Structure formats: structure tokens, C-alpha cells
Amino acid sequence: MFQEITIGSLPKGQRNTLCDVPGVKVGHVTLADGDCQTGVTAITTRDENAFEVRTRAASHVFNGFGKSIGLVQVEELGELETPILLTNTLSVGAVSEGLIRHTLEQTPEIDLMKATINPVVFECNDAFLNKISALKVRPHHAEEAIDAVSEEFAQGAVGAGRGMSCYGLKGGIGSASRQVKVGKRVYHVGALVLANMGRLPDLVLGGQHVGPQIEQQLVSDESGPEKGSIIMIIGSDLPLSERQLKRVAARTSVGLVRTGSFLGHGSGDIALAFTTADPVDTKSRKRTHSVEQVDERRIDRVFRAAAEATEEAIVNSMLNAERVTGRDGNTRYALGEFGDLMGDANE
Predict the structure, then answer these.
(1) Rounded to whole angstroms, how far apart are CA atoms 22 and 78?
(2) How many domains does the chain have?
(3) Can you say whether residue 104 is alpha, beta or left, with left for phi > 0 and alpha for psi between -120 and 50 degrees?
(4) Which InterPro entries match (predicted)?
(5) Residues 210, 345: contact at Cβ < 8 Å?
(6) Is 330 contained in some domain?
(7) Rounded Cα distance, 164 and 196, in Å
(8) What confidence tens digit (pLDDT) does each residue in 156-200 have?
(9) Long-range contacts (CB closer than 8 Å, 24 or more residues apart) made by 78-81
(10) Active site residues per annotation
(11) Which of 4, 168, 247, 302 has its C-alpha lying 20 to 30 A from 33's C-alpha?
């Protein structure tokens, strides 16, 4: 086992996950059978109907090598009207259909309104372990992931993270959180990542460059170009405007590069930040709305929280993953199998 890895200085939330943000829940559907190593992960931001009571959000695209759905409207309107779903690259269409069907079932009046739905679906390519062209993820898996959401959820090689690789090892779903005090009130900033990026020689854990040592033990060559991706979701109950949320989303890059990534040419790196504060009630008859936001002179601690939680979420995606063998006998070893290296690095 690894010695404790210390990341950052801010206090963690009680669960140390995205679900420390009140109202946020996460659920998985995992498909693990031979060449099929994939799944779906769902994030709901509130208990109310997401289409009727919308969550303020913004995204930041660091490297657009990806096939996500829904970001254009999120950028334009600054809000989410569905849960956030994660899956593999070629399953975006199926998961989007499932998310649309879920929303129509929950809100049948959408048809009478002649309205449309903006599903938000993110992806990473899990083709090393998963026969992605088999298209095993179907629309009902998206609905099942939403039905499975809870404040307690598994991390590692589960859900959308089942077939993902991180720094040449097993990656997947990871999460962490930080507490932020503003005035007399304590708020939370939580991160959830779908980690599928990085080169093993670059891996840094808690400031220790351990990648080369692991590579020697594996007797492998992971020194090629970076071709993976990462999706970084930040949630908070802090009162933040859409503009501020975009700034917070951009700070996830700080946590990402601290683990060793340089956001290579073939890596799709995308962040989305949302706040459960000041939701948008579509049934409101008010002509004007007042929106509270954190004073810009106090926002540095929010940036720090986003960076720390993202870094730890990436590490947790690896520490919680087990070894997985998938398509063509391809194997990704778990980071936990090399736990003695942190002790060596500190000597």
C-alpha cells in the first residue's frame, strides 16, 4: 500500500467526494465481460427536476480533441437542464438518447411545449481495454445510471471509468473535495474526474516523480505521445456567476499538470463547473432576478480548492482502481501494486 499522499492544504469534506456538495449524487452502470470493459456514470446536481430547476454552469475546453455533447448551449445560456453523463467515445449517441428519454419521461410536458432538450454527455476513449466498436452501451444504461445515483459511490474502474487508462496504469473515476470558508459559512468545492490521460514516465504523486520507477518495474515503454483524455467536473454550493464558474473550471488545469500531464496534442481535456446556489426556476414569473456571487477579491481560495480537489481526484481514480484485463488480453496494472515506491521516493 502507498504511504499517505498529502495534496494541498485546505480541509477536505466529510466524504472527500463531489457529493460533499449538498444535493449532488453520482451513480454508475459498469459493463465488465471479456472484451467489454466500459460503462456509464451519471451526476445529478439536485433533487428537483433538472429541466425545470436548472443549475448554473460553465465549461472550459483546454484541448478540444473530444466528442462531447451539449457544451455549446451550456456556454451560451450558462445552465444545465439535464444530469451530466460520462461514457466512452463511441457511446455518446446512445447515452445522449437515454438521457433524452429520461428527461421526457420525467417531464412529459416538453412535448406539448414543442421544446427541445440539451443533453450533456462527456467521453473518453477506452479502446485499449474495451472493444469500443462493439457499441455495448445502450440508451437504457444511461437511464439505469441515473436511477442508481447516491451520495455514496464507488471510484476507480467503475462506470464510465471501467476501461480507462491513466499514466499507463489503470485509471477511471476519481473524486475529492475541499472546504472553503467565506465569512462565517463553510462551503464545499468537489471534483469528479474521468481520468484517461498521461504518459507513465511523467507521473507525479504528491510532488514525487514516481513514473520512471514504475516503468522500470513494468519493463514497458510508455514513452510515446500522449493520446488520452480527461473530463474534470467541479461542483460547489458557493454563490458563483457563470463567468466565475468558467474561471473556476479553468483552474482544474493546475491540478492536472501537478500529476504530470502537459495536455498533449492527442489529449482531449475538458472541464465543467457548476453551482447548486441560485438555481434557475423555469416556472418563475419574475421579470428580473438578482444573483448573489462571491466577491472577486475572495475567489482565490475557491481557485485553490478546485486545483487541490482535481489533483487528488486524479490520484484517487488510480488508487481506487484494480488491475483490469480486457480486449485482446490487454492489461492495465493498478497503481496500488507499486505502493512501495512512495517510500523509496521519500528516502
Answers:
(1) 20
(2) 1
(3) alpha
(4) ArgJ-like_dom_sf (IPR016117), Peptidase_S58_DmpA (IPR005321)
(5) yes
(6) no
(7) 5
(8) 999 999 999 999 999 999 999 999 999 899 999 999 999 999 999
(9) 78/242, 78/245, 79/54, 79/55, 79/242, 79/280, 80/45, 80/50, 80/54, 80/55, 80/56, 80/120, 80/274, 81/50, 81/51, 81/54, 81/117, 81/118
(10) 229, 267, 269
(11) 168
Amino acid (1-letter code) at residue 227: K
Q: How far is Cα 315 from Cα 321, in angstroms, rounded to an integer?
A: 10
Cell of 170: 489503470
Residue 315 and residue 203 in contact, taking contact as beta carbons nearer than 8 Å: no
Do residues 282 and 52 touch, judged by C-beta distance below 8 A? yes
Looking up residue 303, the CATH number of its domain turns out to be 3.60.70.12
How do residues 205-255 score in pLDDT, each as one tens digit?
Answer: 999 999 999 988 886 555 566 778 999 999 999 999 999 999 999 999 999
In the structure grid, which three cell numbers stand for residue 200, read together? 507513465
Q: Looking up cell 453551482, which residue turns up?
A: 275
* Residue 118 belongs to some domain of the structure: yes
Q: Kindly tell me the burial class for residue 99, based on how many C-beta atoms sit within 10 Å of its own C-beta (0-12, 13-18, 19 or more).
A: buried
The domain of 315 spans 18-282+293-324
The identity of residue 70, as a single letter, is: G
**Cα separation, 336 vs 321, whole angstroms:** 8
* Dihedral over Cα of 105, 117, 121, 44: its sign: negative
